[in-house]
Design brief:
Blueprint lengths: L3 E12 L2 E12 L3 E5 L6 H8 L6 E9 L2 E2 L5 H6 L2 E4 L6 E5 H13 L5 H14 L10 E2 L5 H15 L3 E5 L7 H14 L5 E6 L12 E6 L2 E6 L1 H10 L8
């Protein structure tokens, strides 16, 4: 029997006066890849931000459990230290801090142990080769001057280096060409094992062409209206979200 990693129970979330999530229920076990799909504005990114308790959003009902611990009201950095990672749709540029130093600092904060820089750089180089990234990017300022594809690959690099228990990938495939999507999919496959899980948030199915997933959830108007296997994504690709709206 699979071991439960994340459980969201009847979660309602607002931003300002607007309610965005209207009772989300979701369970993710270790070893699984889940996908949340839905039209723009359906609440996909809000779901990701709610898991990490982004202060811009207010939870009005429900709870979030991570490894059976209630993390609903924990601070974002505390949730991250418990093993939850989130990549961003639009990764930030941070001048003056190299990719290597950023990752070294983040790794140290999560593990609480000093990072051995030579071995760490070798690990970075290995991952960068797998992701078809220029190893010279290690010493560049984080995301500064990076193309959209390089920024997204950099998010996958962070996931591999930090090795969380749950990786939430928000629109990691948006704006990428076919080859870059295949590389990102390869990074996800490199990361996933029986003890961790991945939650992919997307509004299209491109990334699913080169990745095997366990569950696809359709999110419309702040509610999961349908859950199925990978075939559900193919149906959405062919038919769109129309029949799930205004249910």
């Amino acid at each position: 029997m699979s071991e439960k990693l994340l459980e969201i129970k009847d979660l309602c979330v607002s931003a300002g006066e607007k309610e965005i999530l209207n009772g989300i229920n979701l369970k993710i076990n270790k070893g699984e890849i889940h996908v949340i799909m839905g039209p723009n504005g359906s609440g996909k990114t809000t779901t990701a931000n709610a898991i990490l308790n982004n202060p811009e959003y207010t939870k009005t009902n429900g709870k979030i459990l991570f490894e059976d611990e209630d993390i609903t009201d924990l601070k974002t950095d505390e949730i991250a230290r418990k093993g939850v990672f989130m990549s961003f749709q639009l990764p930030e540029e941070i001048p003056g801090i190299s990719v290597t130093n950023f990752l070294k600092y983040a790794k140290n904060k999560i593990t609480g142990e000093p990072v051995k820089i030579f071995a760490f750089k070798e690990e970075l180089k290995k991952y960068m080769e797998e992701l078809k990234m220029n190893p010279k990017n290690m010493e560049r300022s984080l995301n500064v001057g990076f193309s959209g594809g390089e920024k997204k690959k950099n998010e996958i690099l962070q996931m591999l280096v930090l090795n969380p228990k749950l990786a939430i990938l928000d629109e990691t495939d948006s704006g990428l060409d076919v080859d870059a999507i295949k590389t990102v999919s390869k990074g996800i496959e490199m990361f996933k094992n029986k003890d961790n899980a991945v939650l992919i948030i997307t509004h299209n199915t491109k990334i699913l062409h080169s990745l095997k997933v366990d569950y696809v959830h359709i999110l419309v108007d702040g509610k999961i209206v349908k859950t199925g296997n990978q075939d559900l994504a193919t149906i959405i690709e062919n038919e769109g979200y129309g029949k799930y709206k205004n249910k």
